[in-house]
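Support reply, case 0932

Customer input (verbatim):
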Amino acid sequence: MKIKGPTKGLKTICERLGSPYSIRVFDFEQVIYRDFGNGYDLEVSRLNHNRKDFNATVYVWNTKKPIVVESFPNIDSFEKLSDTLSEIEAKYSAL
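Our regenerated output:
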């Protein structure tokens, strides 16, 4: 199965989020990724398109098991995404 490359829209969102976010392939999808370096990481899914609509899902993973420990569906704006990621960072980067 050929995996579509990251779209301009996905690259723009990732750039707006800044470091330490990157684009990676998970489950045959281009996603925005961040590793907290402590056994937890996150992926932002459903944004690899160039449409104006915004409907992301964020998954927080325990990489030692590996299992999803939390998910945040129906994120409908960049501002909501940014706020959600800030909350996740505060919770998981200190563990």
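We compared this against your earlier run and they match. Two observations from our side: The first helix runs from residue 8 to 17. The two ends are 37 Å apart (CA to CA). Please reopen the case if you see a mismatch on your end.
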